[in-house]
Amino acid sequence: MAFLLKGMVSSQLKSFGLGDTGEEKKEGGDASDPAAAAGMTREEYEEYQRQLVEEKMERDAQFIQKKAERATLRVHLREKYRLPQSEKDENQIQMAGDDVELPEDLQKMMAEDQVEEEDKNSFLGHIQNIQNMDMDALKEKATTTFTEIKQAAEEKCLLM
């Protein structure tokens, strides 16, 4: 409420020319010399601005590198699961350059997945899968499939 009252009174005083406090003059002076506004000399301000630009460039480079690493991971996963490749990922990898590598954690994960896949595709992996099968369920499925085929054949064949 006090803010509203102050705004109304100060606007009325300014319209009469009584409320000119000099704050507007200071704001106009700040726009012409940003170094003085920051409380620095001209050289310090230029050095500060140069450091800001360098830090921004470093952050952008790191961001591009991270995006390329993620794109590389997606490419590996797409190859593994035989999914269609994305042109966007390839562009991100090219933007980062040829030095794109997966982080160590992701490399370990990919290596573990590859070892698991090799184990599943090996002869011993198939033997383990045979041991884990439910033979009763397989027998039931085979008999139901056989009876369904037999019924379909009886319906279509006039001699049976």
TrEMBL record:
An example Gene Ontology biological process: regulation of neurotransmitter secretion
Alphabetical keyword list: Exocytosis, Neurotransmitter transport, Synapse, Transport
Entry GO MF terms: syntaxin binding
Pfam families: Synaphin
Subcellular location: Synapse
Region described as Disordered: spans on this chain: 15-43
CC annotations in GO: SNARE complex; terminal bouton
Family per similarity comment: Belongs to the complexin/synaphin family.
Protein name: Complexin-4
Protein species of origin: Pyxicephalus adspersus
